[in-house]
Amino acid sequence: MGNFDEQAAKGLNGKNNSKTLSNVENAAPPKLPYPKRVFFIIGNEFCERFNFYGMKTILALYIKNKLGYSENDATVLYHIFTMMVYFMCIFGGILSDVWLGKFNTILYLSIVYSIGSVIVSVGSIPVIDFSPEIALYIGLILIALGSGGIKPCVSSFGGDQFKMPEQAAQIATFFSLFYFTINAGSLISTTLTPILRADAHCFGDNDCFPLAFGVPAILMITSLVFFIIGKSSYTYVKTAEENMIIRMFKCIANAISTKYRERSTNPRENLLDYSIDKYGAQLVSETRVMLKILLLYLPLPFFWSLFDQQGSRWTFQANKMNGDLGFYTIKPDQVQMINPLMILTFIPVFEACLY
Q1: Domain assignment of residue 210, given as a range
Q2: Residues 118, 250 within the same domain
Q3: Which of 59, 161, 281, 350 is 20 to 30 A removed from 246 (C-alpha atoms)?
Q4: Count of C-beta atoms within a 10 Å radius of residue 298
């Protein structure tokens, strides 16, 4: 009887153990907590975007009204600066991937960015014995280097704080919030900065560009503080050995040089096939796909050259209008707030209804 009970107990325990193991295997993985550290990155992005769009909103009017440029020359300078900002994204991505990593790239270039913002603000003070034109050039170069350099790093550094694929839903929420924050900073700055410019009076002028540039500069310094506070809590992903863009350009260059040497002795079907021996079939295939995708981007410069005239020709056009809406007189540089206002309106509409 005792042996029977012992064997029965072992049998029951065996069944229970197998059920327990089955339940453990089928159980959903535990939900990871939302990484609170990303809110330092969100705060950093809000303040940085406030600075960038606030400064950019009044830039064309400052160049025309204070530096004495014509509308055409002010437009050219404005768009050269914008072009530099987005071109520097390539530089920032390479710097991050190959040498500094995302955190250090954001940190060092944000310092450069802050210095440029302060120079533009201080240079606009008329009582300072320094050329406001030279100050603007130096400041804009530093801002372009800093803003463009950190642009490809901040969002991806935020994404690094999530563990995939366990937090796929949470990272989607983060990027929606991140995009919302960008446009919230843009909306507030494009609304407030023109008010600081036009309604405040300083240094004997009927406007106050130093204040309008200075408040965004303070927000840029604040963004740097936000970012540094979270340093000890961030997740850091190891940098790549070489930037993928550089590898692809090397692959293309090698294919051209190899074809020049071997086109008669060892002809191949496609140009990039000449790089297979050195770079492998996978990179050659990826490079070929990238070149095809780039064809889709050919019309984009036409779109962006028109879109970005909100800050130049559109603002100059608004400057010739009375801006009377009946209940409020909109300032010429405030017309730029329409874009972020509509984005903030449609993000929740798309999230709740369309998606």
Answers
A1: 38-239+322-354
A2: no
A3: 161
A4: 8
